[in-house]
């Protein structure tokens, strides 16, 4: 929580327990409008049914593929789609994994 005042948070914690559409739900049941879209991560809304279905389908097929000594077809498909959208001269994509 890098941008949170610790003293203020300890006095009155603000806990998010759910999200749907463009609203968060806090632990007191209040709906809070997500005006930042998760800082660029959720412009299509939280729990978007199309995205949930796509993620579920992928997890049912392959939930994780190691990035060392193995490839994964959808990573190559994504790289090709990205480079096809990019301006001329930008014809490489590097897909990496990160953890939160």
In words, what does this structure look like?
This protein is an alpha+beta fold and 100 residues long. The protein folds into two domains: 1-63, Aspartate Aminotransferase, domain 1 (Alpha-Beta Complex); 64-100, no CATH class. It has four helices and three strands; from the N terminus they run H-E-E-E-H-H-H. The protein has helices at residues 6-11, 37-40, 49-61, 73-85, and strands at residues 16-20, 23-26, 31-33. It is elongated, with a radius of gyration of 19 Å. It starts with 5 loop residues before the first helix and ends in a 15-residue tail after the last helix.
Question: Structural class per helix/strand content?
Answer: alpha+beta
Task: Please state how the strands of the largest beta sheet are arranged side by side.
Answer: 1-2-3
Tell me the series of helices and strands, N- to C-terminal: HEEEHHH
Our estimate of the beta-strand percent is 5-15%
CATH level-1 class of the largest domain: Alpha Beta
End-to-end Cα distance: 12 Å
Largest sheet: 3 strands, antiparallel
Total number of helical segments?
4
């Amino acid at each position: 929580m890098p941008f949170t005042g610790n003293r203020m948070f300890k006095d009155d914690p603000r806990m998010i327990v759910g999200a749907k559409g463009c609203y968060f739900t806090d632990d007191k049941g209040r709906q809070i409008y997500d005006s930042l879209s998760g800082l660029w991560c959720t412009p299509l809304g939280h729990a978007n049914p199309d995205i949930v279905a796509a993620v579920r389908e992928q997890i049912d097929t392959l939930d994780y593929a190691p990035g060392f000594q193995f490839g994964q077809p959808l990573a190559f498909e994504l790289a090709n789609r990205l480079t096809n959208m990019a301006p001329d001269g930008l014809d490489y994509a590097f897909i990496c994994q990160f953890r939160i």
